[in-house]
Amino acid sequence: MSELTFGRYSPFNTVVHRIDPRSKIFFMILLFVAIFLQFTLWSTNLIISGLMLVLLIVVMMISRISFRSLLKSILSMWFLLLFLLVIYVLIPNQTYIYPAFNIGSLTIYYDAFYQWGYIMLRLIMILCTTMILTSTTKPMDLTNGLEWGMGFLKPIHFPAHEIAMTISIALRFIPTILDETNRIMKAQSSRGVDFTHGIVKRVRAIVSLIIPLFVSAIERSEELANAMEARGYDPRAKRTHFHVMHFKLVDLISFLFVIAVFGGVLTLFIIDKNVQVVNIIETLFKVNPGF
Fold this sequence. Notes:
With 291 residues, the chain is mainly α. It has helices at residues 15-18, 21-35, 42-63, 67-75, 78-90, 110-136, 139-149, 160-189, 199-230, 249-287; strands at 99-103, 106-109.
């Protein structure tokens, strides 16, 4: 578990690392919007999502992000994926039209497996996008980028800096909590607690893990708060920055590339919806010729 790099900055000197954090945050928002665009045909959804996933994998390779860590992060969501599979497969849905097989009186549909696979593909793309951002951006740069992005709300006294700092600390605490979980699991395993055999035993072991992990998280939070207070941190004070962020040529090139990708996906989405509307209108005219 300690090998997971989700939320952990990787200090490499790649092209993605050199992109301005404000640009990367903007790119992440555009990619999230593109990920959640729903097309009419299954094949279109799978092709568009597959191409976007390939693009994200290429960016991860350029960023030198470990695919082993990505796989471990995906496997850590096994309970959520299993829960979604049960929800989609076993709960009847009137929109399902392609039966696969029957289990007694229960009909299992191909549609259910498609919906589950599509949701899983979206989760993987979201995970990849978030890993790219957190692995290539320093926590303080991420905070400054988020604060800059919400700066237009400051005239109405919106706490932009406080929210940006909270998000940055939360992302930074993910690997810290994972390391602490690994440490507690090793300590409890040395005392005879079994985390590997039997579902019931594993659930009991995880329950015994939650309380010390919760206490440790509170202690770490208190230590961080004391350290920030000792250094005179004041969220309401006017702040300057040692490293001033500047947009560079690499930001312009990456901006044009991401805009081209997002614009292509959005154009296909608009065309898909317009074709659907045209088909509905044509159907109405065929049913009601005198309309």
